[in-house]
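Hey forum,

I'm writing up a methods section and want to include a predicted complex as supplementary material. The small molecule is pyridoxal-5'-phosphate. I've pasted the protein sequence and the SMILES. Can someone with a working setup run it? I'll credit the forum in the acknowledgements.
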Amino acid sequence: MNKINKILQYARGNDLYPDLHLVSGPPEPEIMVGGKKVLMFTSNNYLGLSNHPKVVQGAIDAIRKWGVGSDGSRLLSGNLEIHRQFEKSIATFKKGEDAIVWPTGYSANVGTVSALTQPLKVGPGDFFSLGTVVISDELNHASIIDGARLGKQKKVVFKHRDMKDLESKLKWFKFRRKLVVTDSVFSMDGDIAPLDKMAELCKKYNAMLMIDEAHATGILGKTGHGSLELFNLKATTDVDVVLGTCSKALAASGGFVVGSKELADYLRVASRAYMFSTAMMPAASGALIAALHVMETEPKWREQLWINVKHAMQSLEEAGFNTLESETQIIPIFIGDDKKAIQFSRKLFEKGIFAPAVRWPAVPKDTARLRITLMATHTKDQIDYFVKSCKEISAKLQ
Ligand SMILES: Cc1ncc(COP(=O)(O)O)c(C=O)c1O
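Reply by user p_vandermeer:
Happy to help. Structure tokens for the complex are below, copy them as they are.
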């Protein structure tokens, strides 16, 4: 405990311990945080579906029919029809053959990357074969990194979105089994992976390609089906493993993989995070089935989100802020220094805006930033007030 105390003292003494505010109410643009009414600029509820009447009704109906818990793992008593129904719906939405779901996006990544990098051993040859090399973008989400760690095989990192670097790594491991993995929209920077080029390279060097659609599902592509739609790629033939979370635009919780039937069948018996954990709540599947339906039938949410993204990005750039390479609803406002970023975020809170600072280890050292996210339900006035407040604070913090 001595060591733990030392770490806590260091973090608190250097003003590095995060401000953990208590939130009351659903994630809407105006919300009570720490007992104060503020504007929310850090929600993953991008399309505003978390409190959409049809999505809420989907959850309520599922609770009435199934109760609150799933009772057991999917391999035992938790293999509920409603979970299978969601798997079929998300497989259709992503145009793959089949899907498999985990209780969270984190466990989906950990359970998938580890199972794919350390395939089950079923024959004598397997005991002597080299494991799979994971080739991962340097800014991939922590859950991908943790999956690779758990797989205990060779891990190689390529420079962020750098296709030359990726190709050199693929060449180096030409004769090994390879899994290339990337966020499709990067969670801290809001930029998009060049998936068309990645798919080409993976075919050329015979590597599996896995993408994490956490922040792309419901947002990217002409009809919001994600980055496959944006790049005109196909699940299974172009991208082997299409993973996503159900906790962002889909507004509930859970994680999924869409791909071939063999991939889903394999993960059902090889992913320990799937086998040894109780299935997600039935209410989550009920809400998710409804959320997919709303995404298909009410494009106005996605359209409004993109109007908001364009307006915020333009206003922030005109005001002289560095939003890095963001092209999406995740907009970093680069600050650099940890303490300055924390101060900036606190000043915003004083002005009634909730926009936390993000620093190491969530992002590389010396790249602290405010990381804001937009929702379809933000108004233009709310965005303008946010940008005006940033300008005022920035002038004082120089
Ligand atoms: C890219 C990415 N993958 C996975 C996750 C984990 O998803 P969940 O929060 O549903 O566990 C997140 C969530 O923050 C994420 O941003």
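Some notes you might quote in the supplement: The radius of gyration is 21 Å. The pocket of pyridoxal-5'-phosphate is lined by residues 104-106, 109, 141, 143, 183, 187, 212, 214, 245, 247, 253, 255 (CB under 6 Å).
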